[in-house]
Amino acid sequence: MDKKLISLLHRFGKVIFDEPMAKHTTYTTGGPADYFFIPKDPVCLGEVRDAATKEGLPFTVIGGGSNLLISDEGIHGVVVALSGEGESGIQIVGNDEHILYVDARVDKKAFLEFALRRSLCGMEFMAGLPGCIGGGIAMNAGTNMGWFSDILGRVRIIDKDGQVREQDMSDGMISYRGLKFDRGTIILGGYFRLRKAESSERPVRLVAEIIRDRENKHPLEYPSAGSVFKNPEGHASWKLINDAGLRGFQIGGAKISEKHTNFIINTGSATSSDIYRLIRHVQEEVEKKFGVHLEPEVRMLGEF
Ligand SMILES: Cc1cc2nc3c(=O)[nH]c(=O)nc-3n(C[C@H](O)[C@H](O)[C@H](O)COP(=O)(O)OP(=O)(O)OC[C@H]3O[C@@H](n4cnc5c(N)ncnc54)[C@H](O)[C@@H]3O)c2cc1C
What we know:
The protein has helices at residues 3-12, 45-54, 108-117, 133-139, 201-217, 237-243, 272-290; strands at residues 13-20, 32-39, 59-62, 68-70, 75-81, 90-92, 99-103, 120-121, 142-143, 146-147, 152-158, 164-168, 186-193, 195-196, 250-251, 254-256, 264-266, 299-301. It folds into 3 domains: 3-81, Uridine Diphospho-n-acetylenolpyruvylglucosamine Reductase, domain 2, CATH 3.30.43.10; 87-217, 2-Layer Sandwich (Uridine Diphospho-n-acetylenolpyruvylglucosamine Reductase, domain 3); 237-301, Uridine Diphospho-n-acetylenolpyruvylglucosamine Reductase, domain 1 (Alpha-Beta Complex). The chain is globular and about 50 Å long. Helices cover 26% and strands 25% of the residues. It has a 5-stranded antiparallel β-sheet, covered by helices on one side. Strands 1-2-5-3 form a 4-stranded mixed β-sheet, with helices on one face. Strands 15-16-17 form a 3-stranded antiparallel β-sheet. Residues 26, 61-68, 82, 104, 129-132, 134-136, 138-139, 141-143, 186-187, 218, 220, 224-226, 299 line the site of flavin-adenine dinucleotide.
């Protein structure tokens, strides 16, 4: 038992031992985390990481778990959950209603609703995106209507040396499905630049349309992590998977969705190993048939 670390975790928040990560991922799969930690104030995380590192323990930060495949063996060390915050984690910055500081733990949905109520726009692309703001920033989440980096001006972070600081966004940080931060950066929140909408109904209508469209196109009735693969340059992953004849293909409880072939769904009994083996199978088949490498968008944690 790492007594010093455990007393630190108790001091700074709530710690659960051997917490099944299946409870914290939208795939509903994944083995236990040694120490699942929910901090009262994430500013403590520099110190907590330091203590974990001194004990030789890995340290992982997650948000809403909607882009994660966690090994059935679980994750060693400390797993920090930065999630579960509502609108209380949102502040209007200065006198400027168009700039909002949003805590990493805030749900995207709460942020969207907050902005819609103030007739702001620019964030509508977030409609229907699961998870939290921190995960959205880390992933540079988005759709063909926009990405996080389009509206993110600055981030508040704990850097690799444990210092809390702010960092302006720069072009060099922007990439498809992932902002480039120094290794070990913990995202505490972000400053978002939105615009006043010409009419308050327009963004509300647009959000409703996007949600309807996603409900029609995505297999939301099953657990998943959304699109599994990034789109390779010049290709759509769903089409490559479809044309490789993999629509509906299944390994154990993991299945290529018939509704959207870039989704792997958990039909009820999938393990992370089933999902992982299906990911590898899709990669092999697509590579064999089309010579194109599919890179997972889903992040894998633990050992596979
Ligand atoms: C049904 C469905 C539909 C989806 N549709 C889309 C879509 O249209 N577009 C899209 O981009 N994504 C989509 N996703 C994927 C996912 O929702 C997004 O990537 C989301 O932004 C992840 O947020 P999260 O809070 O769940 O992050 P998590 O899944 O918990 O984490 C994702 C990554 O971010 C890191 N991370 C999380 N929080 C922090 C933090 N505070 N500091 C440092 N690192 C952190 C984690 O370590 C991990 O590497 C979809 C998922 C589902 C289930």
